[in-house]
Every structure is written in C-alpha cells, then in structure tokens.
Write a structure and sequence with these properties.
Number of strands: 3
Number of helices: 3
Helix content: 25-40%
Radius of gyration: 26 Å
Strand order of the largest sheet: 1-2-3
Shape: elongated
Amino acid sequence: MANLMVRNVDAAVIEALKARADKRGTSVDAEHRRILVQTLCKPKKKLFAEALARIPPVGKDSDFRRVSETTFSVSRKAPDRVTRASGSNERSEG
C-alpha cells in the first residue's frame, strides 16, 4: 500500500476527523482511509435512463389491465392500510 500525506488541513477538519474516529473507536488514520474509500470507491450511480433500458420487455401495454385511481383509496387513519373504494379491505394489519 502507498502512503499519503495531506498538508495544510484546517484545524477544524482535523478535530472533526479525530471526533469521528473516536466515535467509531478507530484511529484517525483508519478513519481517514475509511472516508477516502467510502467517497472515492463507491459504485457509480446508474442514470435513470440506463436503469429503464435494462428492464426486460414483459409484454404489451394491452396485456395488462389498468387500475383506475378510484379503485383504491388510502385510509388517513392508518397510512399502510389500503382499502377498496367500496369499503372492503384489500390488505389490513392485524
């Protein structure tokens, strides 16, 4: 592994690095390495268009039934509870 020396770092940055290392129970050098790896070696984010292009075709639009917005309503009392507009429960916690 290569060595890296960083010069002319603001004292506030050094103190923040020391505090972060102390919070994690590691050395300042280990925390510095972790920050560099996390920042510089993270996977490249995909563009939304790239993600869409990778979705395989699963049929024509006419193969699927469109559900209108009036078919389902969300209960304001329980955000995770979905009910049919007619009042019967599609899914409910219990």
